[in-house]
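User: Could you check the structure of this?
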Amino acid sequence: MAPHRSGEPDRGRPGSSSLGGLVAYAVALDAPTRVGRLIVASADGHRPPGRESVPLADDRMPTPADFQAMRDAYDAVAPDPTHFEEFAARTSTMVHEFPGYTEELRALQAPTLLLFGDRDFSPLPDVFELFELLPDAQLAVLPRTTHMDVTRRTGEVLALITPFLDAR
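Assistant: Sure, the predicted structure tokens are below.
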């Protein structure tokens, strides 16, 4: 990370959604002195035993159009677009087998903004439990929003992220 005008190293502000959000948690936990603020959307980093993979109602699942958009995005950059199904299956397995953090999240010092949809993959009671674990967190729940829709609500998300990043 580049030095700040003061000469001190700039503390990063990682943020991402879904699987990328799990990576953002890992960065903040593995390099806490390098992370100034953390933004995580639609990624529950806390998985209590017995809730590793909760069956989801159809209204929480990606639609056929969502799956097509994922395929199109993959096809646009993949060296071999014929591997999409394998890639999707491996990614799904990785997410479902993620053990989650508990004590680690209690120790996370970076101010954290959590963004979830009210129809996200993570049920709201689990999201509230995650929020309670973090010592310095803010939580925003977007109404009528699925996991796939969180990043599509750019106006609302930007209105939440900007003041969070600007806070001192």
